[in-house]
Design brief:
alpha+beta; five-stranded mixed beta sheet; 3 helices; 15 strands; about 15% helix
């Protein structure tokens, strides 16, 4: 009996020891878990410079799914669906699914003869939840009617229509530029060298192709002659920034500094319309960067424009002097009497 009591006491001691060990192990696990959780939180803060992760919602105002996130601890990232379209509405490339519109990859805009790509216009379709980026273009030659170096006495109404010439014999890209409308009388700025005897001045803006570079522009030049070989156009009948042979490169362009840095190259061309002379303008948008003055420009850098002003109307704005009125103090003398 005594032996059995001793065995019972021994078993109780073992049970107490095992229970104590189990309690210590559980407490240790709890403490370890807390420490690991704290370290993980600190690591997240350190990875973000101490700032909790936030979702950029600056583009969310375009979406119907915009939500107030001030009281939300965690906001799931929105996926933007982006499609690029040409001017006919045909999709370019593949559909893009991105977490930010800034992550989109612009497609290559298709070339259109007689046109220049300008930019991608963003449109959002609320029903489809799709962002469309549509290619926009301008004519390679535009009529300029705002006041620049020429001040028209009345608002001009002329316009330019550019048509590519499909001619197998033409070894250079050639375009017909048809001008229609009324050209009013104008006052010339100091930089326009057209003779003062001409009153009606047409202004056109010529844009370079998108793939022309600053290095190529350094070898740019422009030539002008009458379209009809039986006619002549004198140097005082037209004007453009590059007509001074001492100018080169950037000086030939009328692009602003910002436009020039962004690869937008153009020059403004002025021509009197009083004589009704049609002109052909050959534009050499540059050449290889290592070309020199004696190097003929390659065909890919040359464009030819036939400017047709047959349909231009010159406004009649010359003011007639009013007849002198007679006063009682100055009676008209009868020249027939002695």
């Amino acid at each position: 009996m005594k032996k059995e009591q001793e065995i019972g006491k021994e078993d109780n001691k073992k049970a107490i020891i095992i229970l104590s060990i189990a309690i210590v192990v559980v407490l240790g696990l709890i403490i370890l878990t807390a420490l690991l959780s704290k370290n993980e939180e600190e690591k997240k803060l350190d990875d973000n410079n101490g700032t909790p992760v936030k979702i950029d919602l600056k583009d969310k105002d375009l979406s119907t799914e915009t939500k107030e996130a001030s009281n939300v601890k965690q906001v799931s990232s929105k996926i933007y669906v982006v499609k690029y379209l040409d001017i006919d509405g045909e999709q370019l490339g593949k559909t893009q699914r991105i977490s930010s519109l800034e992550d989109r990859v612009n497609e290559k805009a298709p070339r259109i003869d007689g046109m220049r790509f300008v930019e991608w216009i963003q449109k959002y379709d609320e029903n489809e939840d799709v962002y469309y980026f549509i290619a926009s273009y301008r004519q390679n030659v535009e009529a300029v009617t705002e006041e620049i170096k020429v001040t028209h006495k009345t608002p001009p109404t002329y316009s330019a229509t550019v048509t590519p010439v499909d001619n197998e014999n033409a070894d250079k890209p050639t375009y017909d530029v048809d001008i229609e409308g009324e050209v009013p009388e104008a006052e010339l700025g100091e930089d326009v060298s057209i003779s003062e005897e001409y009153a009606h001045i047409l202004v056109l803006r010529f844009y370079a192709p998108e793939d022309v570079t600053k290095e190529q522009i350094e070898n740019m030049k422009v030539t002008v002659h009458a379209t009809n070989p039986n006619e002549t156009i004198n140097e005082d009948q037209y004007s453009y920034n590059g007509e001074d042979t001492n100018k080169s490169g950037r000086e030939l362009l009328d692009s602003t500094d910002e436009e020039y840095e962004n690869g937008v190259f153009y020059f403004d061309y002025y021509q009197e319309t009083d004589t009704g002379t049609n002109t052909t303008i050959e534009v050499y948008w540059g050449n290889d960067p290592d070309a020199n003055e004696t190097t003929e420009p390659k065909d890919e850098y040359v464009e030819v424009y036939n400017v047709n002003i047959d349909n231009v109307t010159n406004s009649q704005e010359t003011e007639e002097k009013p007849a002198e009125e007679l006063t009682p103090e100055e009676p008209q003398e009868d020249q027939g009497q002695e």
